[in-house]
Amino acid sequence: MSSLSRDEVAHVAGLARIHLSDEELDTFAGQLDSIVGFVASVNEAAADDIPPMSHPLPLTNVTRPDEVRPSLTADEALSGAPASEQQRFLVPRILSED
């Protein structure tokens, strides 16, 4: 298992623009080293005959065919609206056009 140095942790913290004290660098060096070891053990467990997957259960896309069906007319859809204009819902302006 590789051992991460304080300098490597400081470099990563610098890339992330995170200021760490000397005590935090020591703490995080050990924690990050453990995380890297855990990831390495997962990589060792993966077998070549098992395909990579994003979810443990098979997923199917639940969709319905796109078919034309009877629906409301524009006037029926707008009949309950507080305000409408040009067969559209009329809502208060929230953005200026500047």
Short key terms for the protein model shown above:
40% helix, 4% strand, Histone, subunit A, two-stranded antiparallel sheet, 98 residues, mainly alpha
List the helices and strands and how they pair.
Blueprint: H1 6-15, H2 22-45, H3 74-78, E1 84-85, E2 88-89
Antiparallel strand pairs: 1-2
Helix pairs in contact: 1-2
Protein name: Aspartyl/glutamyl-tRNA(Asn/Gln) amidotransferase subunit C
Catalytic activity: L-aspartyl-tRNA(Asn) + L-glutamine + ATP + H2O = L-asparaginyl-tRNA(Asn) + L-glutamate + ADP + phosphate + 2 H(+); L-glutamyl-tRNA(Gln) + L-glutamine + ATP + H2O = L-glutaminyl-tRNA(Gln) + L-glutamate + ADP + phosphate + H(+)
Family: Belongs to the GatC family.
- As for the CATH topology of one domain, it is Histone, subunit A
CATH class of one domain: Mainly Alpha
* Mass-distribution shape: elongated
**Taking Cα atoms only, what radius of gyration do you get, to the nearest Å?**
29 Å
- Secondary-structure class: mainly alpha
Number of helices: 3
